[in-house]
């Protein structure tokens, strides 16, 4: 019942916001040229899906996002484990990791376009740079948070390095890693869409850029709404996977 009540409040806030927006646009309180109408945005989205116009763009963005998400997460987890378990290497690479993380990713988009062209590779590369550091820092911190007492007891029981990695480090860092996945999905989509926006021939970012180029505010907002729904669906899927795989983790309020 509590979950249902929360959902009703969420739906109520959304409906109230859309009604106020529609009213303000219809009565001239805000300029519809700049803000459009929620009803027109909904019509545009329904038209895109009914005619199939959006499916090729959605497919391209999905492929770019999934590749960036998978590659960035895999690299981030592997490097996070490596540096967390190798203090000497971590000390040497620390300033380089911080320096690379400080680079604004948008600055890299034109460079990747120059290197890899206007195809999928440049968008995937940009998405990987966004996802990698989220997964890396969460994995690194998760491994570092492992209790020394647990490690000591495991070693007393004869656990080798491989056993510690499988039965202690990875389970301890699992919550941190899954937490990073929820954030990484959004960053993977951002990488794909920003890359498409700056230069591509297909994708949701391309669709939004085309609408913006002809001052089609309705098209811009429709593309943004599709993107938000897309990310929410992906986040829900990761959340379901997290609940299924981390069944041992105590729920809120439990000890």
TrEMBL record:
It is a multi-pass membrane protein. Gene3D superfamilies: MetI-like. Residues 58-238 form the ABC transmembrane type-1 domain. One of its GO terms (cellular component) is plasma membrane. The keyword Ribosomal protein does not apply. Keywords: Cell membrane, Membrane, Plasmid, Transmembrane, Transmembrane helix, Transport. Its main location: membrane. The chain crosses the membrane at residues 65-85, 106-137, 185-208, 220-241. This is ABC transporter permease.
């Amino acid at each position: 019942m509590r979950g249902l009540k929360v959902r009703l409040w969420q739906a109520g806030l959304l409906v109230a916001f859309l009604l106020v927006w529609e009213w303000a646009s219809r009565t001239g309180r805000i300029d519809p040229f700049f803000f459009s109408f929620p009803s027109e945005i909904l019509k545009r989205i329904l038209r895109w899906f009914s005619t199939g116009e959006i499916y090729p763009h959605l497919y391209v963005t999905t492929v770019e996002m999934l590749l960036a998400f998978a590659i960035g997460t895999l690299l981030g987890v592997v490097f996070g484990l490596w540096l967390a378990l190798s203090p000497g290497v971590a000390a040497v690479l620390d300033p380089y990791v911080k320096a690379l993380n400080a680079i604004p990713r948008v600055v890299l988009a034109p460079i990747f376009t120059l290197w890899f062209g206007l195809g999928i590779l440049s968008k995937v590369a940009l998405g990987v740079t966004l996802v990698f550091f989220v997964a890396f820092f969460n994995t690194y911190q998760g491994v570092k948070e492992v209790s020394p007492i647990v490690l000591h007891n495991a070693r007393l029981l004869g656990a080798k390095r491989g056993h510690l990695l499988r039965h202690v480090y990875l389970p301890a860092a699992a919550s941190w890693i899954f937490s990073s996945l929820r954030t990484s999905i959004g960053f993977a989509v951002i990488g794909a869409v920003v890359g498409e926006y700056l230069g591509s021939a297909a994708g949701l970012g391309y669709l939004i850029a085309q609408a913006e180029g002809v001052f089609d505010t309705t098209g811009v907002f429709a593309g943004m709404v599709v993107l938000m729904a897309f990310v929410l669906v992906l986040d829900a899927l990761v959340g379901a996977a997290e609940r299924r795989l981390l069944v041992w983790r105590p729920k809120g309020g439990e000890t």
